[in-house]
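Job type: complex structure
Entries:
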Amino acid sequence: MVDQIADQLGKTRLKQEARQLHGQLAGVMRTFGRTCRGRQKVFVSLVRQTEKQLLTVGEWVGPLALKALLDLYEDTTLAEPQKNRLHRHLQQAANHYESIERQSRRLTQGKKLAHAKIVNAYDPTIAPILKGKSNCPAQFGKKPGLLAEMATGFILGLHLPQGNPDDAGYMMPLIDQVQQAIDQMDTPAKPRIHSVAGDLAFRETGLRNQLHGRGLLTVGIPQTLEPIPTTPTLQMITAARRTLPWPKSISDTQIKIAYACGYSRPFVESLIEGLSIRNGTHLKYKGHRGAFIQTMTAVLAHNAATLDRIEQNRLTPRAQRFRRFFRLKPPNSLQDNDGKN
Amino acid sequence: MGIVRQLQHWLGGPGPQLTVADFVPEDHPLRRWADTFPWDPMVAAIDQHMATHFSTQPQRGRPGVSTRVLLALELLKAELACSDEQICSRLRTDFAVLYACGVEQVQAHREQAHFVLPEVLAQFRGRLDEQVMAHLLQIQATDAMEKGLVSPAHLVADTFVSEQGSQRVTDATTLYKAKKKS
């Protein structure tokens, strides 16, 4: 851009400097490309080594842009609209440089990446995923959250925030989505949410209190690494009941079912696998909107496949058992449910 | 305007008139998959979104492709893991895809290469946003709960990772891929 402005203004010296700097930067990137060619992997150490060289060589980009801006102001030969256009383009290019430079400095070894850091100059909404390890290339992309039914894995809510907030921040928007879907039902007796399960990332006290305030059990969210008991004792049922604002609003059976519906990683993995085969975990559309559309399309297709399996009764024994718990299916008369026969 | 009238340019060919449902068995996976969707409220939601966010279509010229077809193509694209080109190509030849798109009868011309161009699908996608997509999920969830197929009583929440899939095309990557394929 500086080169273009210098060309328009007839500033030979500025043009030479811009071209020289551009050549040097291209040289650094060429070295980086040669080292990476054919390896299929880009090592973080190599990225950081190149990043330092780029920052050293590129420190003159800022002053050069400023010089071009001053020359543009002082010039009297160009028409006003043309000057405005060049000024706008230069400012845009300088902003890009600033965001790249800022992000590049944040990728320095040993410094923790905070939330929602811009890492890609071409798509500012793509953020680093905090699950990335320090000894391997940083993972980039999105971190959607889902809320699914425990029996068959029908996804009732999808939340895709900007940046990477904590997992606990996903819960309430997801619950709101399900509640909205329930409110839209035409039936007189509307179902209600009894419990929510999640992994250790959802164990925050503040979130638990919020869920308890809405009358939701959180016995399916573990507080320690110990597994959640599938059959609760009488004391556990009483303790769970005390957490709710209206203790009598839920039956003992529902509390037992809530314990049985504790968080299960294999179950969640099966949902993610279902989305993965529908291109829900490999983003190709651009930006945050594109990511949301792609993930949501995969979710809708996954849900349709789940409904088809339900209608065909092609469900796992686990799913069938849970559907009996939820009273979506009549009890199995051939099975000794109560231990009485 | 009905779906047939909207798709008139490829449903009015000189070939024999074929009923799509006759060619797709009732237990065909795509037929069963498509029958689970509450199409009418979903299409109405998109049409309402288009009407409020974009200017009205001109009265002159050929009518646009039906929203029902475009929405179904977008969903089929995910279900069958196809690209825009692949799914639009399958719409021309695959009766199950035609059924899923809600087309009841077809009278195609042999020389017609495409029923829906991939560019039209991309333009349709470009007009969708987060609100309308979230509304579609809400419609699907409400319909499933009303039918008594799912229950919101006990839920599980979790996050997962969607990696960035776009790859910058350079001479080096193209050459590398060509070498790898050969």
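Summary: Chain B touches chain A through 50 residues (CB under 8 Å). Chain B has a mean pLDDT of 84.
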